[in-house]
Design brief:
Helix content: 40-55%
Order of helices and strands: HHHHEEHEEHEHHE
Strand order of the largest sheet: 5-4-3-6
Strand content: 25-35%
Structural class: alpha+beta
Oligomer: single chain
Number of strands: 6
Largest sheet: 4 strands, mixed
Radius of gyration: 22 Å
CATH class of the largest domain: Alpha Beta
CATH topology of the largest domain: Beta Polymerase, domain 2
Number of helices: 8
CATH architecture of the largest domain: 2-Layer Sandwich
């Protein structure tokens, strides 16, 4: 949906990165690696966003140690970074729009997972609730085809512009892990999460 609105997938992905990390400056190659995109496409969209004053250029002086013979020389080098312009007049609206678009994608993802089989328990956690470096983002319990689940998640990773880690368990395995107080399972159950389906006995 946002691709049609903004005219470019790369632009949407860049906006998502900048809006999710408003205080962090990025340089071109870092963004290229993160987006897994061509550097020319990233540069072009950065120029577009800068011309609209949505992002700003930040020049940072970096010191580099150069060894010439036996002498150590410190050379100053300027590096160009890009950062979101929080004073941009439509900044709050852009942030709200991106959040609403992600919610629509998440709702669509939930619908697709429910269609994969008999789901007894479905939880969104990790990136979906703002937990950074959490080992899992989705826990699905029930009879689900693993290949179809992988295919659905891969598609939504592209839509959301980030990796989604998920765990599939049968109802029997879930109950066994719960009964033995499995550390991994309880790290999910005892943490911040959104329970979408709960039909376990």
């Amino acid at each position: 949906m946002l691709e049609q609105l903004f005219g470019s997938k790369t632009r949407v992905k860049l906006l998502r990165i900048f809006l999710n990390h408003p205080d962090r400056p990025y340089y071109v190659r870092e963004l290229t690696r993160e987006l897994k995109s061509q550097i020319n496409a990233v540069r072009r969209e950065l120029e577009n966003l800068e011309s609209m004053e949505i992002i700003m250029i930040k020049i940072v002086d970096k010191e580099e140690n150069k060894i010439k013979g036996k002498k150590k020389k410190i050379k100053k080098k300027q590096k160009k970074f890009f950062i979101i312009n929080q004073n941009f007049i439509l900044y709050p609206e852009l942030k709200a729009l991106m959040l609403k678009a992600e919610l629509l994608v998440e709702q669509h993802l939930i619908k697709k997972i429910k269609e994969l089989g008999n789901i007894n328990y479905l939880v969104l956690t990790g990136v979906f609730v703002g937990l950074k470096d959490f080992p899992v983002d989705i826990l699905a319990v029930g009879k689900v085809n693993p290949k179809r689940m992988k295919s659905v998640v891969k598609k939504f990773e592209r839509d959301l512009g980030r990796e989604i880690n998920y765990t599939l368990l049968s109802a029997q395995e879930f109950k066994y892990r719960r009964d033995i107080t499995d550390k991994f399972l309880y790290s999910i159950l005892d943490n911040k999460k959104v329970v979408v389906v709960d039909q376990l006995d």
